[in-house]
Structure formats: C-alpha cells, structure tokens
Amino acid sequence: MEFIQENLQTIYFVIFCVFIGIEVIANVPAILHTPLMSGANAISGVIMVGAVIMLFQIPPTNYLLLVLGGIAVFLGALNISGGFFVTGRMLRMFNSKK
Fold it and tell me: Transmembrane residues, as ranges (predicted)?
C-alpha cells in the first residue's frame, strides 16, 4: 500500500499513456500499419542491442538475473522476428499479380 501511495502520480501517468496509446493505434489507417510496424521493429532492434549489452554486465555468479535476462532477450528476438514476418506478409499483399 505504501508503494502505491509513493508512486501514485507515476501510476496515473502510465494509465493515461495506455489510454492515449489505444486511441492513437485505433485511429491509424490500414495503409499505415506496415510502415509503423517496420519502425517498431527498428526500435525493438535497438532495444535488443541494449539488452544484450546489459546482459554482459551481469556478474556470472548471479544466475537469477542471467536467466531472466536471457528470457528477456529471447522474447525480444521473438518479437522482432515475428514483426518482420508479419511486415513481409503484409507487403506481399500489396504486390501486383503477374
């Protein structure tokens, strides 16, 4: 309860950002989804590089942080690869038939 009282303003900000994000994404035209996904993949790639660098900073004896960091890097790589597959599939939809 003390944690919530100390961070109430931050919690309100996160909730506000969630609602703003939902509104922004809901109002994006379908034609812009592919470029936005490509941009999100690029941002995720940069974050992934930072995560790997941080993973190398963990002491080798701290197994819990190494496992959690490894899981986070794996899930980030899964997110990036899935985003590229979806982007490629969407771009193939716009190719003209020959």
Answer: 12-32, 39-58, 64-88
